[in-house]
Amino acid sequence: MIERPYSTAVYRDAAHALATIGQRIYQHGWSPATSSNYSVRLNASHAAITRSGKDKGLLQETDIMAVDMNGQAASDGKPSAETLLHTQLYRRHDTVGAVLHTHSHASTVLTMHWPANSITLEGYELLKALEGFTTHDSRLVIPVFDNTQDIAALADQVDAAMADDGISHAYLIRGHGLYTWASDLPTCYRQLEALETLLAIELDRRRLQGV
Questions:
Q1: If you placed Cys at 185, which of 1, 14, 98, 133 could pair as Cys (CB 3.0 to 4.6 Å)?
Q2: What is the distance in angstroms between the CA of the first residue and the CA of the last residue of the chain?
Q3: According to the annotation, is 113 in a ligand binding site?
Q4: What is the pLDDT of residue 3?
Q5: In this structure, is residue 3 part of a structural domain?
Q6: Is the pTM here over 0.85, yes or no?
Q7: Is residue 21 domain-resident?
Q8: Does residue 140 belong to any structural domain of this protein?
């Protein structure tokens, strides 16, 4: 029997947690059909991630697989096409323990209708749900990257931007969705819920203001 380069128990816990969180995210409408991908760090060299093409509303533990930090499969299955966007974050920051990516209505409309290269969330009480934020008197600038099918190139672009200005908490892909990361999966989910709620609020405010 070939020994896996990660703990089987840790992997099973990660698969269960991702399947549970995935169904919860789906119920909010942030990951329709087979869109989105979620991952958890297993150790310094591997992560558990959703398999490609799985319906997030029906996500099961068997829909999770392991990959190395180069995005290569380390267990049976085909990893998400966007795996390199997850592993880039794990390689960039060894404190990142989970990554969640969603395809919500709000993030899609905001990034397609308004062509700015960032969205700023400021003065919201809910910003305190983000790791490291302690007051509503805070400002989060979320960069927006143009969508592309060249995921390796996009991962390099994100990495370069992080090296230049220390992007924190999240980024958006135009017409595509939100990426957010945190030290562990519960914190990452809390952060995702806050960000998706704030993006929906921001969308409503812009509509009301006729911006």
A1: 98
A2: 61
A3: no
A4: 62
A5: no
A6: yes
A7: yes
A8: yes
- The Cα–Cα gap between 78 and 73 comes to 7
| Overall number of domains in the chain | 1
Cα separation, 51 vs 206, in Å, equals 36
Residue 64 counted as domain residue:
yes
- pLDDT of 1: 38
Question: Which residues constitute the domain of residue 63?
Answer: 8-209
Answer for the pair 85, 38: CB distance below 8 angstroms, yes or no: no
Which CATH number fits the domain that encloses residue 55? 3.40.225.10
Query: What is the rounded CA–CA span in Å between residue 64 and residue 52?
Result: 9
What is the per-residue pLDDT across 136-180, written as a single tens digit (0 to 9) for each? 998 999 999 999 999 999 999 999 999 987 799 999 999 999 999
pLDDT at residue 68 above 80?
yes
| Sheet order of strands, 37-41 included | 64-68, 46-50, 37-41, 98-102, 177-182, 170-173, 139-145, 118-122
Q: Please state, in angstroms and rounded to a whole number, the distance separating the CA atoms of residues 39 and 111.
A: 24
> Is 176 assigned to a binding site?
no
The DSSP 8-state label assigned to residue 97 in this structure reads -
Please state the φ and ψ torsions of residue 175, each to the nearest 5 degrees: 65, 15
DSSP for 127-167, written as a single string: GGGSTT---SS-EEEEEEEPP-S-HHHHHHHHHHHHHHH--
pLDDT tens track for 106-132? 999 999 999 899 999 999 999 999 988
